Amino acid sequence: MIHIGELIRERLCEIERTPTWLAKKINCDRTNIHKIFQRASIDTELLARISKALDYNFFIDLSKNKSSKRKQQWSCKYMENEFPRAIIFTQKGFELM
What we know:
Helices cover 46% and strands 10% of the residues. It is mostly helical. The chain has a two-stranded antiparallel sheet. Helix 2 packs across helix 3 (30-37). The longest helix is centred in the first third of the chain and has 11 residues, at 4-14. 22% of the residues are buried.
């Protein structure tokens, strides 16, 4: 099963943005972004806003039932007040619909 919060965290890391940046883009508090990372499911309206902010269509991943286990390892340094962590993901072109 897909863990949407992990996919969102991975995308944020991929584009080298912070949770604070995403919070401002979708008009919510930074602590809510960290709660989103822990969610296995999410409201579609919120996911649409996040998709637009991150320029990534998460609905495609959900429809294809992609897991968040990815193939290439990248260093993630976006987390404020946290140690950098390795995130595994594949780079793929996409188009936001």
